[in-house]
Design a protein that fits this description.
This protein is an alpha/beta fold and 634 residues long. The protein has three domains: 40-240, Leucine-rich repeat, LRR (right-handed beta-alpha superhelix), CATH 3.80.10.10; 340-432, Phosphorylase Kinase, domain 1; 435-633, Transferase(Phosphotransferase) domain 1 (Transferase(Phosphotransferase), domain 1). Helices cover 33% and strands 16% of the residues. Helix 11 (456-476) packs antiparallel against helix 18 (621-630). The two termini are 34 Å apart. Bound molecules: adenosine-5'-triphosphate. Adenosine-5'-triphosphate binds at residues 364-365, 367-369, 371-372, 384, 431, 433-434, 437-438, 441, 486, 490-491, 493, 503-504. This is Pollen receptor-like kinase 3. InterPro entries: Kinase-like_dom_sf, Leu-rich_rpt, LRR_dom_sf, LRR_N_plant-typ, PRK1-6/SRF4-like, Prot_kinase_dom.
């Protein structure tokens, strides 16, 4: 049979697995008209998979044999569905361990995303190559070790995103990775990979990180566009990016090992002394600073330094400063050692109200929902404290329940809540500070380096991430009136690597009913303006605005209350589509990527479909994210 060579399994597997592989292929070929679920249903497959894992308490409450994992009303937790088919397993940070049995997952024909990040899995890499249709695989932050066979990925041609970082993989980077046609993201950082880097030349590859391994030799020419960061922490790598001439490397090594001359010793001595003096001086100044903060802030309320570094004190409408409020909260409420701050995520470290009170603070802004402050704590952790003005007067238990639902979410494009504070008259949400700031700022505010870096691949990556986060929220909060409710570019934060993080989501149940119209951007959708109706489709409208904003580079008039100023991006795009002149709308700063104009125009059409005025005729989030996912770099 001519097709047989195509179905050769990767070499490095046991004879038993060879047999299993061929049995699977037999089923696929001969029963291709029969759903695979005839042999094993999706619920059975998932239960079997779960049985191979340990510490599955995160799944136990909903994963039950005999029920439909994709049931609209009782969907299994951490299962992502496309209609009635399992499309993704989002099992990150679930406390899981054990030996992953991949076999049952073969019975999930729609499986495209497998996320097992930040668990406690160990041992050699499981046989993921049986899952040939996977598009994304995330196993970062585990204890996997050993070599990955070089042809491991050769039958996984659909893979786009591979995150294997923060494990203990060793040996060479598998060559088959370099042949993945659609690869977009490759993260292998913080492992023990050694040997040379294969030549990655895929145009689709926009995000790569190989830092902190033991890689050796010259960085391939084809990878010069990635700069130096992805290669740092590999002592034996050389190349232009790292400022290490490969030819001179050997010489340099010899030179470095040669005994130092007397003069060099003297210079080194001077440098070290200078360094020591600087460190001592800084430490002294820091001590003074914290002493001052400790005394003044505890007694007089929060003193903040704004970006122009003027010291000021921030007061709410009632004249109360955040610090003052925190101080009273810490003193008056039932609470743990952390005061009355409830920590919901300890990955970034533990802290309490006293730490926040001692932190150096800076005002970030005063949005419609409340004010946001950056607080840099003594332990170095920077957080954002959001003081919510218009929160429902719900009792503590109801508030706790809502916030805990939010805090359980784990997705790479969702900003993680770290802690919260509840008092009748004060509600604070604490999340990690994201240094690059918001998309709004980078697109319209800053004309510096960060703005220049918003090239087409980066913008597409941001849209992909936003769509993925929104799709996730719509699946997790499917029963909510509006799962995000407040999607706009100031609520999209960007990490150092321009990975978008959605913030201020799922607030709809928390906000005073009388205030939602003023507070939530979903209320700017046409259906809300015309008849005060919002629905999950209002989120789709907001996503459409983001797409149009990113592609045109224009500030949408929709963000303004009176819509005076800015550009009516919706109207503009509709008339351009009618006149067949879509490409004219593309932001000049990305339009130079002429090879990609077709992709940009395609995306513009998705933006238009998301902003159709009648919600009945508007596509839903699943369809929007599917169409966005389809658009990749060429
Ligand atoms: N975790 C964070 N890291 C970095 N910057 C943040 C963070 N959270 C908020 N910001 C930035 O702080 C500023 C103020 O945020 P805030 O959420 O108060 O206002 P907003 O997003 O403009 O309006 P809204 O209250 O409607 O959400 C914004 O520019 C926002 O992008």
């Amino acid at each position: 049979m001519a097709a047989v060579p195509l179905f050769l399994p990767p070499l490095a597997i046991s004879p038993k697995k060879h047999l299993l592989f061929y049995i699977s292929i037999f089923f696929l070929i001969f029963l291709s008209n029969t759903p695979f679920s005839f042999s094993i249903s999706e619920d059975e497959a998932l239960i079997k998979f779960k049985e191979s894992l340990k510490n599955t308490t995160a799944l136990d409450s909903t994963w039950h044999k005999g029920s439909n994992p994709c049931d609209k009303n009782k969907k299994w937790t951490r299962v992502q569905c496309e209609g009635n088919t399992v499309e993704g397993l989002l099992l990150g940070e679930a406390g899981l361990s054990g030996e992953i049995d991949v076999d049952p997952l073969i019975a999930l024909p729609g499986l495209r995303v497998l996320e097992l990040a930040n668990n406690s899995f160990s041992g050699t890499i499981p046989e993921f190559f049986f899952l040939g249709a996977l598009k994304s695989i995330y196993i970062d932050g585990n204890q996997f070790s050993g070599e990955i066979p070089k042809d491991f990925f050769s039958k996984m041609g659909s893979l786009k995103k591979i995150w294997f970082s923060r494990n203990k993989f060793s040996g060479p980077i598998p060559e088959s990775l370099a042949n993945l046609k659609y690869l977009m993201e490759l993260h292998l950082e913080s492992n023990e990979f050694s040997g040379p880097i294969p030549s990655f030349s895929q145009a689709s590859l926009t995000s790569i990180d190989l830092s902190n391994n033991k890689l050796q030799g010259e960085i391939p020419q084809s990878m010069s566009k990635f700069g130096s960061d992805p290669f740092k922490g590999n002592n034996e790598l050389c190349g232009k990016q790292l400022g290490k001439d490969c030819n001179k490397e050997k010489e340099n090594n010899t030179f470095q090992r040669a005994p130092m001359s007397k003069m060099k010793w003297i210079i080194l001595g001077l440098v070290v002394s200078l360094l020591l003096i600087t460190i001592l001086f800084k430490a002294k100044r820091k001590e003074d600073h914290f002493d001052k903060l400790g005394k003044e802030n505890l007694d007089e309320g929060l003193h903040v330094s704004s970006s122009n570094r003027k010291s000021t004190s921030i007061h709410s409408k009632g004249g109360d400063s955040v610090h003052e409020s925190l101080r009273r909260g810490a003193g008056s409420q039932r609470g743990k050692a952390t005061g009355d701050l409830v920590l919901v995520n300890e990955e970034k470290g533990t802290f309490g109200l006293p730490d926040l009170m001692k932190a150096a603070a800076e005002v970030l802004g005063n949005g419609v929902l409340g004010s946001a402050y950056k607080a840099k704590m003594v332990n170095g952790l920077s957080v954002v404290v959001k003081r919510l003005r218009e929160m429902n007067k719900m009792n503590r238990d109801v508030f706790d329940t809502e916030i805990r639902k939010i805090s359980k979410l784990r997705h790479r494009n969702i900003l993680q809540l770290l802690a919260y504070h509840y008092r009748k008259e004060e509600k604070l949400l604490v999340s990690e500070y994201v240094p690059k700031g918001s998309l709004l700022y980078l697109l319209h505010g800053d004309r510096g380096i960060s703005h220049a870096e918003l090239n087409w691949p980066t913008r597409l990556r941001i849209i992909h991430g936003v769509a993925s986060g929104m799709n996730f929220l719509h699946s997790e909060f499917a029963s909510y009136v509006v799962p995000h409710g407040n999607l706009k570019s100031s609520n999209i934060l960007l990490t150092e690597k321009y990975e978008p993080l959605l913030s201020d989501y799922a607030f709809y149940p928390l906000i005073n009913n009388t205030q939602t119209v003023q507070c939530l951007f979903a209320y700017k959708s046409p259906e809300a303006i015309q008849n005060q109706q919002i629905s999950p489709k209002s989120d789709v409208y907001c996503l459409g605005i983001i797409i149009l904003e990113i592609l045109t580079g224009k500030f949408p008039s929709q963000y303004l209350n009176n819509q005076k100023g800015g550009t009516d991006v919706v109207q503009w795009v509709q008339s351009a589509i009618a006149d067949n002149r879509e490409s004219e709308l593309i932001d000049q700063e990305i339009a130079n990527a002429t090879d990609s104009i077709e992709q940009m125009v395609k995306l513009l059409h998705v933006g238009a479909a998301c902003t159709v005025s009648d919600p009945e005729k508007r596509i839903d989030m699943k369809e929007a994210s599917r169409r966005i996912e389809e658009i990749s770099l060429i």
